[in-house]
Amino acid sequence: MGITRRNLTKGIVLLSTALAVAPFGALYKYLSVPAPTIKLTRTKIANRKDVPPGESLRFNFPLKDRPAVLIHMVPGEYKYGDYRQGSKTKAVNIDEFVAYDSICTHLGCPTSWKGSEKDMASPCHGGAFSAIDGTVLKGPPLRPVPKIKLEIDASGDIYAVGYESGLPLFGLESVIFEPV
């Protein structure tokens, strides 16, 4: 007894269905892998007296190769708010410290503090970010830079303890950060 046309058609349909469904198993396995998690640790950056008013200090957070910047703001007028909706100005009346991830959210270029401009600039495409809240002041970036949460102890030591806003980090979009 040979193979009938009906059995041959059934076999072809079953084989075609198996071949069509097989990639979905691999896709499910790929997509069901949990996102990597990084537990944030309280990281000492500097002491208040180590960063003169109007200056900045580079440090790494949350990873040893992830650049960030600590800014010692001085009293004065600072721009904030996304330029596409109209930036505003805010008066800062005390010297305070803020910190940001210093990777531009556009293409990952390093940003730097421009004390004379009172903003963080990205040299790659002319982007600029506010020292008040990390929002985009000019250029092509669409997202603000992530703002790092700081703690300052009684002796003046400044610690990075997590993020206040702006996640995900450029280049680490799939990473989940556990708070300190």
Question: What is this entry, summarized?
Answer:
The chain has one helix and 14 strands. 15% of the residues lie in helices and 38% in strands. The termini are far apart.
Describe the structure.
The model has no long low-confidence stretch (mean pLDDT 89). This protein has 2 domains: 1-33; 37-178, Rieske [2Fe-2S] iron-sulphur domain (Rieske Iron-sulfur Protein, 3-layer Sandwich). With 180 residues, it is α+β, with helices and mostly antiparallel strands. The N and C termini lie far apart (73 Å). The chain is elongated and about 95 Å long. It contains 1 helix and 14 strands; from the N terminus they run αββββββββββββββ. Strands 2-13-12-7-4-3 form a 6-stranded antiparallel sheet, with no helix packed on it.
Assembly state: single chain
What's the SSE pattern? Answer: HEEEEEEEEEEEEEE
Number of helices, where a helix is a run of at least 4 consecutive DSSP H or I residues: 1
What general outline do the C-alpha atoms trace?
elongated
Which value, in Å, is the CA radius of gyration?
A: 25 Å
Low-confidence stretches: none
Structural class: alpha+beta
How many beta-strand elements?
14
Main beta-sheet strand count, sense and barrel state: 6 strands, antiparallel
CATH fold field value of the largest domain: Rieske Iron-sulfur Protein
Query: What is the CATH-assigned architecture of the largest domain?
Result: 3-layer Sandwich
Mean pLDDT over the residues: 89
In whole angstroms, the N-to-C terminal distance is: 73 Å
